[in-house]
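FORM 12-B: Structure-to-Sequence Request
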């Protein structure tokens, strides 16, 4: 009997110890440290004074130089980054065939000049004979025709020389303005083809922004308007003025091209940098716009989201559909309501279901 009692006592003691151990583990889980976070309430804006669109910076004065003739490149006189002056020789193309044509044209001019001189003498002689009625009118008309033909032949030969001289300009590529070489697409010995870009040149420290504005907003963009341009690569805001507003979107997919001339600046901006252009426009829509700071966004590939606070004080990741960017805020088209809160920053790495405490 005592043996049975001892066994029952041991079983009860084992259950009690196991239960205590489970409670201890549960207590450890319940007492885990929560991540401290800062939250914001959704803000709405009924009359945002800015329309923000993406743009790309380019040099105001730039050129892609090419040739109109085919030939082997004899010499490339510049490299990328070189400063050049207007009229400076950049590329020389073999022009042996042009030299031969020029010699033929020069010979043709000598021949035409001789024929014209002879015809002119005969014409003047016949004019004197005609004045004394020593020749007939038909003889005078024939001589006049010969004279006019010789004169036209000489003019034709001279124009052929002008054509050859024009072709020589395409065999010696010179700088159309002073600037910096930005690209070199050909080397000595390569074959230059008509229309193929050989050298790219641009004027430094003089930039503009090309932006595409949707058709719903283009009517509010006026030439001469002062705008702010945020250059993302260097995190600088530069002022500019609208210099051109396109009146057609036929070839731009419903987007209207707008050019903004940037003010002179010491900021290290370069052609090709992306930017955000903020146009000061009057927003006539009365619908509420949900805005959140861009620093609160969570990125995962092409997806953008934000952490919200659940009823049990845990982090809940919510994927969003975003609209336009307004300075350091972005418009939320769907995924958040105007009465919700979202996490701006956290003192630790957040994940779905992470326990949080609001500061």
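FORM 12-B RESPONSE
SEQUENCE OUT:
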């Amino acid at each position: 009997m005592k043996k049975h009692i001892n066994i029952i006592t041991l079983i009860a003691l084992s259950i009690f110890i196991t239960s205590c151990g489970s409670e201890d583990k549960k207590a450890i889980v319940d007492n885990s440290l929560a991540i401290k976070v800062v939250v914001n309430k959704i803000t709405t804006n009924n009359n945002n004074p800015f329309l923000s669109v993406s743009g790309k910076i380019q040099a105001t004065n730039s050129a892609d130089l090419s040739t109109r003739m085919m030939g082997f490149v004899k010499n490339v006189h510049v490299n990328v980054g070189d400063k050049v002056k207007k009229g400076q020789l950049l590329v020389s193309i073999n022009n042996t065939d042009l030299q031969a044509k020029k010699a033929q044209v020069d010979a043709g001019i000598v021949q035409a000049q001789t024929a014209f001189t002879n015809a002119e003498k005969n014409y003047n002689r016949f004019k004197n004979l005609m004045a004394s009625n020593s020749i007939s009118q038909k003889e005078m008309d024939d001589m006049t025709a010969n004279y006019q033909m010789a004169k036209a032949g000489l003019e034709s030969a001279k124009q052929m020389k002008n054509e050859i001289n024009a072709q020589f300009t395409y065999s010696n590529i010179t700088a159309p303005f002073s600037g910096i070489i930005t690209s070199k697409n050909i080397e000595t010995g390569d074959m230059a083809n008509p229309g193929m870009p050989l050298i790219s040149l641009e004027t430094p420290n003089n930039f503009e922004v090309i932006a595409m504005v949707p058709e719903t907003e283009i009517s509010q963009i006026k030439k001469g308007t002062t705008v702010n341009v945020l250059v993302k690569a260097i995190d600088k805001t530069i002022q500019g003025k609208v210099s051109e507003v396109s009146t057609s979107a036929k070839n731009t997919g419903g987007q209207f091209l707008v050019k903004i001339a940037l003010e002179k600046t010491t900021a290290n901006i370069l052609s090709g940098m992306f930017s955000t252009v903020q146009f000061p426009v009057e927003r006539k829509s009365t619908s509420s716009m949900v805005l959140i700071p861009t620093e609160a966004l969570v990125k995962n590939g092409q997806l953008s989201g934000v952490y919200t606070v659940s009823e049990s004080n845990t982090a809940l990741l919510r994927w969003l559909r975003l609209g336009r960017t307004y300075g350091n805020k972005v418009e939320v088209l769907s995924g958040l309501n105007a009465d919700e809160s979202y996490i701006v920053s956290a003192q630790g790495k957040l994940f779905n279901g992470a326990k949080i405490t609001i500061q």
